[in-house]
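Letters spell out the chain; the tokens describe the backbone. To illustrate:

===
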Amino acid sequence: MKLLPISEISVDHSKVQEVEQIMKSTFRLITFSRKHMADDLLNTYLSSTTNLQELLSIKNAQMEAQNETEAEDYLITLNQTLLFVANEIKHQVDFKTELQLFQLFRLISPESHASHPNRYRDKLVQIGGYLCPEPSSIPSLVSELFYNINTIKSPIIRAIYFHHELIRIHPFIDGNGRTTRIAKNWILMYNLFPPIFIRDETEKSNYINTLSQSFALLDKKPNKWNDNLSSFFDQELNRLRFNSLLVYDAVHDLGETRIENE
């Protein structure tokens, strides 16, 4: 397996810029509102982000679990992991290292970590028709991936690229999806963007199918951008735009209500 070169990334930058503008507008509402409203607006922004994190937990639990009991158990683990990430962000820690990846793996997938503590998988795995890379190549691929993401200026593109490529490497025996999605959202939330989550079964199906088809095409043409890569980035950007608008609307609506009640 070869990682997709950074130079090949070809996304719709207008969508990236739109999300950036939505969040800039949100912070302008908070920063430049009348003094007596600023605290309320800031609290609304923070509570909106918190609510999105809670929704992220629920959606991820539904995606990873096969039944209600599994979902309840996983939701506890996921919330603990999100608290860890939130605390790291509070202390100005961005997601940049393999050590942090193992920290997330240990927290979000404790059973898998217990059977393979602090190490990558030692067996071949297959995702649909896609055969993941040999175990012996995982350490170098993961190291290269971290080098690559640390050269990407846009945190949005960095997060989505990391998501796609780490799932393709599939470094752990289990828990790859949940670990990757938390890592992606760590990157986003550190940079003051809301988290991304799968909202329904249709999105889940599209997400899985797009990744599978993208991996198959990259197997044939390792250094070539493809339509399914474009589709995956678009899906993620659309989810991020949706959540960014939710945060903006919550802050804006509170400001309008306060003005009307003066």
User: Anything to note?
Assistant: The chain has a mean pLDDT of 91. The domain at 6-260 is CATH 1.10.3290.10 (Fic-like fold). The CA atoms of residues 19 and 101 lie 26 Å apart.
